[in-house]
Amino acid sequence: MKANTTFLRCGLFLPSLQLPFLLEAIVRLILYNFVAFSIEVFNLVDYLRQMTKALTGLSKERFLSLDLIRGIAMLGILFMNIQSFSMINAAYANPLAFEDLNGINYWVWYFSHLLADSKFMTLFSVLFGAGMVLFAENAVKKGLAPTYLFLRRNFLLLIIGLIHAYFLWFGDILFSYAVCGFMFFFFRNSKSDNLINWGIFLIAFEIVLGMGISSTFLHIPEADYTEMLQSWQPNGDAINEEIAIYQGSYSDQLKDRMGKVVTFQTFGLLIYTFWRSGGLMLIGMALYKNGFLTGQLSNRFYTLTGTVSLIIGLAITAYGIDQQFGHGWTMEYSMLQGSQFNYVGSLGTALGYACFIILFAKMKGFDFIKKIFSNVGRMALSNYILQSIICTFIFYGFGLGWFAETSRFHQLLVVLLVSTIQIVWSTIWLQYFKQGPLEMLWKRLTYTSAPAKID
């Protein structure tokens, strides 16, 4: 219902304030605009709630375990992404490329790499695959065409990813997920065993591809080698130039971001993201179909699998860290060959995380903790974009301009601040709406003029 603002224009709602005429007029004007603004906000909230109710019939079945995994993964990815927001590009892959790595800063990096790097993105890839199957199932239940709807939905995600990457942050993953989704959605009806086998093959293929590329380093032209080395360990001039760009104007950042995005969405997609993310999506489909992700297996299975996976995964990653420092983080070893330890170890660690999160979802009690983390997961798309908005404002020149000015320890404090903001805002928002703002818009655009038939 739209609020009636006629009484505001009459000015009858304000009693005499017993102030000089001019001052009273100013006070009345301020109060008028404040109340008018408040009512417009009320109207907007009321409209959004009505829109959400209209879409209730299209809401998919929710699984607490999926929302919990997604929410924890959403907060977890910032422990690594914060480095990309706050420091030069090379510092993400090569911790020796920039700033001090001693004392507390070393341990912040160490545990971020051990516990977070590639682990939470693995969970997101698995959930994206599971989500494709779940989306298709819900469309069929409603007598709608799953392929048409998914392709429409996925195209919208691709557009969101492009906007996010080019205009906000080059590290976007939505575009790559959308590209993978266009292909791997059509595998959703395969048997679970086949999905797992194909997923393992794709993941293993990336390892072989990375090792093959690594073996060619000594045979590439000197000019290309020098350029690669500069990207891995930039000199002082290159570092100062990048700092100046991201502490400078938005237009300068936009120009610099263009080249990074093109590289990430072409070369990066072809040699890394497509194979790993695509393989994990297929495995995610299988883990949803066999009941693993929805908590349908025994507690004993989750406990044993989670414990063994965590021990193996963390051990492999820890060994890889030791090897990286032993080789001095040289480009020839660390860029591809040395990174394979974390590539493999992150799979086991992520599986362990999933097992224990699912066990937590099945436990009785702790409803408040489950609620706040699952709320973040229910608004994953909105929260992912919000992370970029907050962090670019904090670190880039169009905001506070803290780029290259915070230690790794202080970056950790920013992560805790942003995570708290996301938990609070997700909890408040979902008291009024069933979905996040971007999820609501995404769904509305997806189901507009949806064909009422099954393909």
Overview of this protein structure:
- 73% of the residues lie in helices and 0% in strands.
- By secondary structure, it is mainly α.
- The chain has 2 domains: 6-50; 65-447, no CATH class.
- Residues 1-42 and 51-60 have low confidence and may be disordered.
Shape: globular
Number of DSSP strand runs: 0
The percentage of residues in β strands lies in under 5%
Q: Tally the helices.
A: 20
Quickly count the domains. 2
Helix content: over 70%
Could you give the topology of this structure?
Elements: H1 6-10, H2 21-54, H3 64-76, H4 78-86, H5 90-93, H6 104-115, H7 119-141, H8 146-167, H9 174-184, H10 192-214, H11 222-232, H12 236-246, H13 250-289, H14 299-326, H15 331-334, H16 340-362, H17 367-378, H18 380-395, H19 408-429, H20 437-447
Question: Main traits of this protein?
Answer:
455 residues; mainly alpha; 2 domains; 73% helix
Care to give the gist of this entry?
This protein has 455 residues and is mainly α. It is 73% helix and 0% strand.
